[in-house]
Design goal:
The strands form three sheets. Strands 1, 2, 3, 4, 5, 10 and 15 form a seven-stranded mixed sheet that branches. Strands 6-7-8-9-13-14 form a six-stranded mixed sheet. Strands 11-12 form a two-stranded antiparallel ribbon. It is α/β, with parallel strands linked by helices and about 300 residues long. This is Nitrilase.
Amino acid sequence: MSPTDQTTITVVADEFGRDLDAAYGTIARTIATARERGTDLLVLPEACLGGYLPSLGSVHDDEETLARRRRNLPPAFALDGPELARVAAMAGDMTVLLGLCERAEEGGAEVRYNTAVALTGDGVLAAHRKVHQPLGENLSYSAASRFEAFDSPVGRIGMLICYDKAFPEASRTLALDGAEIIAALSAWPTARTAAADRIEDDRWKKRFDLYDAARALDNQVVWAASNQTGTFGSLRFVGNAKVVGPGGDVRAETGVAGGLATVTLDVHAELAAVRQGMYALRDRRPSAYRLDAVLPDYPAERPEPAYA
């Protein structure tokens, strides 16, 4: 891609559950609409294939609750299986990012990861396994331990999944690895306690939006955030997919009802313009940062989790 190329990015907020036929139908329609808009990069939500968890767990759950959750886990797929090959065939020359539950084998045992995949018609380009696990997600998925950017037809991309974006170290690692675009795929729900009547007023929706703007500005990158909408099990998702410029300005968003938001921009020119003065990555002082600092004390039982 030449430095003057325009890149069209489309982000998606839509509903995905256990019904795979319905998911493929939604993905096919979305890709068709995105193609009509000239999309180069399409970012679908976390857990597109097979849906997310119907509820968030706790270490205090009784055995009956744990057994019920195990029965309701999403289906798990191999990255080289027919499920992703079907999406790749739809993608053609478009770069498509989407989430699924990944089935992998480690040490002779089967494990599950909450995974985001980037693919084109040629197959899988890269995968990111979710690192940060909120509120009992570790009862259903294994956690990964790395963030890496990758080269794609639209430039160098980094991927995050949902709660990953709450940690500035995650997006900073991707930016330092050369990511020009960071895509954050989510199934981000409303608050579990004292939920607002209107999603627009929900506390966790506001956090979702703040993280998107802050992480784009922190790293002076183009930020593409997708999300689920609707409800699944006990969860209600906040939607509001968006593209944020490297200055932290929201260029387009879907709103809580969902849909597609599309932006066309010259990624290299945008980054150069915002980085020519205060360039955050250049001006870091790593020797001043206490990465080994001891955590402050906090109550063992928090009245409200930070995020689910």
